[in-house]
Each structure stands twice: as C-alpha cells, then as structure tokens.
Amino acid sequence: MRIDLHSHSDASDGTLPPGQVVARAVAAGLDVLALTDHDTVAGHAAAAEAAGDTLTLIPGMELSCRRDGRSVHLLAYVFDPADPALARECELIRQGREGRAEAMVARLAGLGVPITMEQVRAVAGGGVVGRPHLARVLADLGVVADPAQAFTPEWLGVGGRAHVTRYAPDPTDAVALVRAAGGVSVLAHPKAVRRGGELPDALLAELAGAGLNGVEIDHPDHDPAARARLRGLAADLGLVATGSSDDHGDLTGHRLGCETTAPSAYEALMAQGRTART
C-alpha cells in the first residue's frame, strides 16, 4: 500500500478542490489518503464522494497550535467531527485566522501595498483564511515574485513588518481534545527549519506523555539528519513514525505521494484510533 497522511485542499490553504485532490491521489498511485486541512473538516464530504471505492480516505485535520511564540502543527485523524469541545476550539482558531488576516491586510496597506481583504477572501474561495492566501495576493500584485518570497521578515514572516500573531491553543491541550474526541494525533514536521525553526526534543517528549500517538518523520522539509534524529526519538518514546507529502497543490508542486507512511505504521495508528473510540 502507498499511504499519504498529510494533504490540503482549498478548504484551507491548498489550491485544488477536495475532489481534485482525491483524483490526483489516485493518479499518483496512492491507496490511502488523509485530507488534513487547517482547523476544518469542510472538505471531507466532497473528498469522500470523490474517493468512492477508488482509495481509502482518512478523515483528518491539521490543528494550528502555539508554544512559547512558536507555531506547532498537530495532525489529527479519525476523530468525531461533531465533538463539541473540539468543534468549538476549531471555531476559535478559525476566527483568530480571520482577524489576523484583516490586521495583516491593514499593515500591508500601511506599507503601501494595494491589497484588500476582499482580494484575500477571493483567493481563499470560502476556505479557512491563512497567510498563504495573502502571499498569493502579494504575488498576483507583483509585490513578490512568488508566494514563497512573501514569508520573509520584509513581509509575512514571523516577526516581519506585516506579521500579526493570532489565537492558537497549546499543543498539549490540542492532544487532549483530539483524544477526547476519539481520535489520534501526530506531530507534524517538527524539524522543518523553514517553518519557523525546529521544535525542541523536550516538547516531543512532553506531548508523548500527554497522549500523542505519532510523529511525522518522512517529510519534504526534513533532511536526513533530522529524520534520523526523529526516528530515534520516536523509538524511545513509543511513537508511530509517519511519512507524508504535505501537498498544497500548486503551492508545493503537486507532490502527493512523494513521501509515504509504512503500512505497518498506518495500521498501528489506526488501531490506536479504534482503541481511543472504544
């Protein structure tokens, strides 16, 4: 089996509708795909309809968390999307994203950029608004050559001229919420330097003690040294080691299936989910 446990659609900051993400996953030869949009399950129904019997679709979500001013992303799988506490927390995160986007648009306007919130919402297409949508507008306006160049101190990078913080839960609280909703959680790309710096090993150990189930190791932003370090930590902490593309469509070059999760790891993760729901 070929298994990719981290992908995004235009329900958050991917560029393709959920159905097209599924179609590309099938074309890439995947047998299992997790749709993990940021802080929303809005794309699940359309993805499930498109998947049919062609592949196994895992309902998922990427929760946006923060610890000590640093972004921490938590992948959640097979949880109850109707769980009141988890749904309420996701709504708070989404509201924080919207308010942050409005504040960043105001800062950009103050820097002389002719950007409006209407432009950002149009790019988001009704999905959860995030910095990538602002970055795409900046590229469309010719302010930067491509969206990736917007994530610098000059513009939207952490601590940058137009950067604004937003509400995000502590990752230990998020792990508990996912667990209470009958799901399992995996720490996403913890050693991806370009995403704001490597997360400390101590945080991974703390989250494992709080009920974290796995850690994303084989990721396009992890070099060989980071992968080796994480494999050792996962073994020591009893965490499932996963691999994923973290595909965002056009923004990442349509890379579904470029990194995958071993079938044994996938089965172990799903077994822990069944235990949590029981």
TrEMBL record:
InterPro entries: PHP_dom, PHP_domain, Pol/His_phosphatase_N, Pol/histidinol_Pase-like. Residues 3-67 form the Polymerase/histidinol phosphatase N-terminal domain. It comes from the Bacteria. SUPFAM superfamilies: PHP domain-like (SSF89550). Gene3D superfamilies: 1.10.150.650, Metal-dependent hydrolases. This is PHP domain-containing protein. The lineage of its organism: Bacteria, Bacillati, Actinomycetota, Actinomycetes, Streptosporangiales.
